[in-house]
Amino acid sequence: MTSATQTQEQVQPSAPLGRKASFLYDLMSVAGRAIRGAMRDYESVIPALIIPVFFYTVNIGAMQDFAANALPGQDGAQFNYKAFQLPVAIIFAVTGISRALVVVTDIQNGYFDRLSLTPVNRWSLLLGMMIADFLMVVALTIPVLILGMITGIRFESGPLGILAFVLISASWGLIFAGFPYAVALKTGNPAAVNTSWLVFFPFVFLTTVFVPREVMTGWMGTLAGLNPVTYLLAALRSLITVGWDGEALLKGLAAVAGVAALSLTLAFAALNGRVRRK
Questions:
Q1: pLDDT above 70: percentage of residues in the chain
Q2: pLDDT value at residue 239
Q3: What's the predicted TM-score (pTM) here?
Q4: pLDDT at 158 over 50
Q5: How much is the average pLDDT of 56-73?
Q6: What is the 3-state secondary structure (H, E, C) of the chain?
């Protein structure tokens, strides 16, 4: 009798297994799984470094001498095309990096549906993935930054400017990830997620990616002025060549915040729609 009672006590938990946990616990649980998955999935992350390193090397090799003689420099100095191109390489490295395809896999194999039936906080399902994305894009900025320093780039804003450079770049990568997450949660289709990469092109190429806005043709300069990436690039470049330029930094942060309002609204609306179907 005593043995049976002890067995029953061992089988019955002291609290319900499905009790609601705190938001922080749910967030860290989802983020932990995403981070472990990202570390195992390094073969899909490393190629993200190939494009920025390739474009940085080719653009410097092709344009450095021409830009030094043809473009106006800072305070009468020669135009520093390496410093001009480093933020472009960073944007190439961090834009579009996300775990959105993992979300699609979770939707297709039913894991996302089963998770949606638990008391887990709904926002943590997306925010947890984004924590892993943020760590990934920070990690991706470092090799590109080291490449720039090897080629002779120095930051006028000092070590804190380098930290600000990494955080602003990573913030851009994080908020841009809202677009592929929105597509993944809305469609559950890997092909649709891959095509969301197309959003990247007008953001990155209709801006000051090759030359300053002052030397562009009129229509291209107008389009660049409407593109938030123009102000993001200007903020990052200011940390290298100027120092702490408050106006450039505020405009860059405002541009990131504006894109965040759009991308995150779309992502969380898609999340709410996906969860309501259950």
A1: 91
A2: 95
A3: 0.85
A4: yes
A5: 85
A6: CHHHHHHHHHHCCCCCCCCCCCHHHHHHHHHHHHHHHHHHCHHHHHHHHHHHHHHHHHHHHHHHHHHHHHCCCHHHCCCCHHHHHHHHHHHHHHCCCCCHHHHHHHHHCCHHHHHHCCCCCHHHHHHHHHHHHHHHHHHHHHHHHHHHHHCCCCCCCHHHHHHHHHHHHHHHHHHHCHHHHHHHHHHCCHHHHHHHHHHHHHHHHCCCCCCCHHHCCHHHHHHHHHCHHHHHHHHHHHHHHCCCCHHHHHHHHHHHHHHHHHHHHHHHHHHHHHHHCC
